[in-house]
Amino acid sequence: MKAPDIVGYKFSKEYYADAINRFVVRDRQPLQRPLTAKEFEVLIFFLERPRVTIRREDIEPLHEVSRAGPRHPADDYIKELRSKLDMPELFVTVSKAGYRLNSVVRPVTSVDRTKAGEFCRAAAMHFNEHTMISMRAAVQDCLNAISLDPHGVPQAYIILAYANINLGHVGYCGDLPANTIPNAKKAAETVLAEQPDSAEALGILGLIALIWEYDWTKAEKFLSEALELDPEEASMLLTLAHLKVTQGQTQAAIDYVERAVQADPLDKIVHSSRGWIYLLAGKVKKAKELMDESASRFPEFARGHFLRALVCEAFQDYEEALKSFETALRFEEMAVALTGLGHLHALMGKRNLALSTLERLDELHKKREIAYLSGYCEALIYVGLGQTEKCIKGLRRAYEERCDWLIHLGVDPRWAPVRSHPGFKELMSKIGIKHVTKFPK
């Protein structure tokens, strides 16, 4: 492989030297003390010759360095490299000979970068499908891209972050949020370490602050910074819409979701969420119109049909809501759609059918088709059945899970029957919810 084809070197497991941009990171984080230009040249010289003993006088980058006294400059440079890399064992001193780089080194080539880009594009395609299978495929594609080229495809980290967030989301129940959210946060922080002006990474941190930390102030700070950097980043705009609607700033929420759709009209979840935001803002009639449009544009998108079902239910068109739930479940047996169907059956007086959805959710959990049965799911069915105490118990468990959809407790009309309960009010306070949407009769 010719030298110009090499774009970087992976060494000692967690280290990467970027030969193009001339920096070194450890575990995808910058070194506390960056290497000087000459130190970097010496390191690259050894990375090109791993486990080969090199005499001091043969280290080419130091040929032009002046020598003062009996000590060879190589000794000082190796000392600094050991210190800055925090790896004393990386360079072995060979008595009366020189130094040897004691590490497996894998060059990252331009071919690797091309393949990594292909994996990243595949990940984006899978992510936009928003199924459990496609989300897991997106994660694997991102990991493949990062393995090939840790620093040439920052978008892989962005998709990896969102895919992890989604898998922990109550809409998927693919893994516990406690497992997925730290991975998502680390991926976003990795991008910011190298690209401090990444609106997408800041938007991810804002989303995590909102749905996991329930820190509304922190979420708004991150999202405001992201908005300044890129006013048309669709995912961040959608997060802002959710933040604003839960705060009662309905027009701002609507403005943000409309901008998100304009920024990326082919993003299925963004487009399908528009009607949902209108619903949470109390504009049920308009929400119904938009969800009909979205279902028509993406007729095989399960989550779009699920969100349409929620709007139809709020519109009190239960038969149409039932059809949308059934359509969604025909495309994918989502825990959140089963839950919504159970809640609807309860409202329609079909108690046994409502309870049967709980049984089905438990079966999916036992069969490991979902990683956990969220307390949110149980609570929603119990609120439909009028079993208030069981509902509150489920919501408390959902809070312990750090369930993302708890941020909607004040604006989702399905929780209206229990909003006066002291336990519900206590949860609202813990989450930081201060606004409640009043829906038209």
Describe the protein in words:
With 441 residues, this protein is an alpha+beta fold. Among the domains are: 3-103, Orthogonal Bundle (Arc Repressor Mutant, subunit A), CATH 1.10.10.10; 333-441, no CATH class. The protein has 19 helices and eight strands. It has helices spanning 37-47, 73-85, 110-127, 132-148, 154-168, 177-194, 199-211, 216-229, 234-246, 250-263, 268-280, 284-297, 302-314, 318-331, 335-347, 351-366, 375-385, 388-401, 422-431, and strands at residues 6-11, 15-18, 23-26, 29-30, 54-55, 91-94, 98-101, 105-109. Helix 12 (284-297) runs antiparallel to helix 13.
What key phrases describe this protein's structure?
single chain, 441 residues, alpha+beta, Arc Repressor Mutant, subunit A, 3-stranded antiparallel sheet, 60% helix
Describe the protein's topology.
Layout: E1 6-11, E2 15-18, E3 23-26, E4 29-30, H1 37-47, E5 54-55, H2 73-85, E6 91-94, E7 98-101, E8 105-109, H3 110-127, H4 132-148, H5 154-168, H6 177-194, H7 199-211, H8 216-229, H9 234-246, H10 250-263, H11 268-280, H12 284-297, H13 302-314, H14 318-331, H15 335-347, H16 351-366, H17 375-385, H18 388-401, H19 422-431
Antiparallel strand pairs: 1-2, 1-8, 2-3, 3-4, 5-7, 6-7
